[in-house]
Amino acid sequence: MADRPMPELLPTPAAPVPPADRIGAGVLNTFALIGGLALWGGRALVEALRPPYDVDEIVRHLYDIGWRSTPLLATSGFAIGVVLSMHTRASLERFGAEAMIPAGLAVAVVRETGPLTAALLAAGRVGAGIGAELGAMRVTEQIDALEASAVDAFKYLAVTRIVACMIAMPILTTVMNVSAVIGGFVAEHAISGMSWDLYLERAFSLIGFSDLLPSTLKTIAFGFIIGVTGSYLGFAAQRGTEGVGQAATRSVVLASVLVIISNVVLVRLIFFFYPQGGA
Amino acid sequence: MTRLAGVGLFVVGGLVLFAAALFMVGDRRMAFARTFRVATQFSRVTGLQPGAVVRVSGARAGTIRRIDPPTDPAGRFRVELDITEELHPLVRTDSVASIEAEGLVGGSFLSIEIGGADAPIATSGTMLPSREPFEIADMLQQMGATIVKVNATVDVLTGQVQHALDSVVVTVDNANALITSVSDDATRIASAGARISTDLADLTADIRDGDGTVAKLLHDDTLYRRLAAAAEHGEAIAGDTRQIVGDTRQIVGDVRAAVERLRGTDGQVTGLIDELRQTVTQSRSAVSGFADNMDALKRNFLFRGFFNRRGYFDLDAVSPDDYRKGVLTGGGERPAVRIWLTADRLFAPAAEGAAGTPVLTDDGQARLDSAMTAFLDQLPGGVLVVEGYSRDGSRQSQFRTARGRAATVRDYLVDRFGLDAQRSGAMPLGATPVETPELASWSGEGIALAYFSDPARR
């Protein structure tokens, strides 16, 4: 739609310019970026709830973002589980608390390591893909062509990807958590010969609903951030292939930073609603 | 695999895994098990939180539902807990609940003991009896106190054992010295006994052989006859002696009668004694008058300095101002030596009231005795003045307190060391001390022993 405002960044001033001007331009660019992201995200939420729903496009993106990311996150989760088990053992066996290894590993993975690592991996893989794909469409004027064909490019290209990210992230996080627990069991079984039943019993002995539900559901917000960042920077791509590369790189960096920052806020919110952190 | 199947597998698989995780958590939390709710009470919950594990005889049986704090300090925390119906028959009304810790690093959980077989099964809402938690910190504190007591006891025992060992060592040393000294004497006694035995044997042999005086006494009649004659002479001498004694008694009686006649009222000796008495009375009167005259001379301003320099002065007539000006020093011929003693070390605090005279404590008396040893070698001859000081209150109060302190100490020293009362005085100086080099360290509360030595003895 031609009448919809497209995100724009302030033009980079030509060198040389005084340092104060550069700092001022950087600050203004930062605020412009934050404001653009906020508006982009808010608009995406509104459009996501408004029919018609482009389910086919969401499923297509879900396949690319979710299903094709599963091997990456499952493998990473398994490796993280093995490494965490070894590290936890090295610490706890000093106190003769080897029995606490499964519980400690499970709590660490479910509460924080799994969601955050899954979000960062997804930001790297999915965020870069969205940014590059939409950036390429922007510089090749495919988006303009869609809008010239009376297709809502924002809803068709951006909202579907954002919704797919929001659906895929909790599932990817669950996959990563399960893979990490399995990896921890493999490492523990190799060292101490612990059985699967005993491992599961001990792993879930300290985990409550307040550990599992909020930490898994908060990854919906991570998916939203990844989708919004990638699509915004892709739509804002300029200057040909160079702009496509910049959009991909900036999508990864900005999505990762925003995921980490938002995680701090979300953890505080979880502690506010579940102060005991217990059951 | 088609794209749609992949997405379906991804979504369904993810949901199944998530549901499985939820089910496992719920199963461990007994979220899906049938439970019954009971309660118990504790004065302190020691870290027990809602959601904590409940164990019945060690088996996982449920979770803590809620903990209600008491409404007043005398109240107790009310703890409500859900227990699975599977273990319901084990929980009786006499089952005791207690808070325990899962190892040193674990959290707290609620433990319920299996009740007695005769007690009824606890129903929902039953208040179970509880046992207050045992704090490791309390145990450590008690252990610390016990160790301190044991250390003190060991120290005392060590001292007593050391004292006993010292006594044993001293006793052994004394016994050794005694044995060493006795051994020489015993040797000498044995030698003397041997010599006496030899001498007795020789003497007996001589008597048996008729040698010596004793043998002649036993064997010769001539000696017996001589002794009988000597006894007859002795009897005659005794008769003469009786006669002489009778004559002597007669002479003594005559002399006594003569003396009695001289002592009689009309005798010559009586008149002589009366004259002597009259003479002595007149001499005393003259001496008394001379003493008064001399006293008057000593107080006369013309002669006062002379007498003071010579050491003739009346301490009762010396004012504090004259004393501070050095009237007793005799122009430097009698320098004073001072010993300063503070009031809190000499007098009992309770007696330091407005009511009465200060009372010396035992420690104060000991300190005064110790201080007086510096002057004992120079007594008598000099003049001892007890200077009293006080800085509290008005000048009148200072004067009264200073005089009381000085008089108390002076009386004690006069009585204790038999000092000449004429050469020892009490001088109330209030808050204005005599200028001396030691004044910088003087607190102003107490007394000073000032001894003015005799210039003739220096």
Notes on the structure:
The complex is a heterodimer of chains A (279) and B (458). By secondary structure, chain A is mostly helical. Chain A has one domain (19-273). Chain A has helices at 19-49, 55-65, 70-92, 101-139, 142-148, 153-192, 196-203, 209-235, 240-273. The model of chain A has no long low-confidence stretch (mean pLDDT 87). With 458 residues, chain B is of the alpha/beta class. Among the domains of chain B are: 33-134; 310-457, 2-Layer Sandwich (60s Ribosomal Protein L30, Chain: A), CATH 3.30.1330. Chain B contains ten helices and twelve strands. In chain B, the strands form two sheets. Chain B has an eight-stranded mixed β-sheet, with no helix packed on it. In chain B, helix 10 (395-417) links the parallel strand 10 (383-389) and strand 11 (424-430). Chain B is elongated. The termini of chain B are far apart.
Features:
heterodimer, A: 279 residues, mainly alpha, 9 helices, elongated, B: 458 residues, alpha/beta, 60s Ribosomal Protein L30, Chain: A, 8-stranded mixed β-sheet, 4-stranded mixed β-sheet, 52% helix
Strand and helix layout:
The complex is a heterodimer of chains A (279) and B (458).
Chain A (H helix, E strand, L loop, with lengths): L18 H31 L5 H11 L4 H23 L8 H39 L2 H7 L4 H40 L3 H8 L5 H27 L4 H34 L6
Helix pairs in contact in A: 1-6, 1-8, 2-6, 3-4, 3-6, 4-6, 4-7, 4-8, 4-9, 6-8, 8-9
Chain B lengths: L2 H26 L6 E8 L10 E4 L2 E10 L8 E8 L12 E5 L6 E5 L14 E2 L1 E2 L4 H74 L2 H8 L1 H43 L4 H32 L1 H10 L9 H5 L11 E7 H4 L15 H11 L10 E7 L5 H23 L6 E7 L15 E7 L6
Parallel strand pairs in B: 1-7, 2-6, 5-8, 10-11
Antiparallel strand pairs in B: 1-4, 2-3, 3-4, 5-6, 9-12, 10-12
Helix pairs in contact in B: 2-3
Short description:
The complex is a heterodimer of chains A (279) and B (458). Chain A is mainly α and 279 residues long.
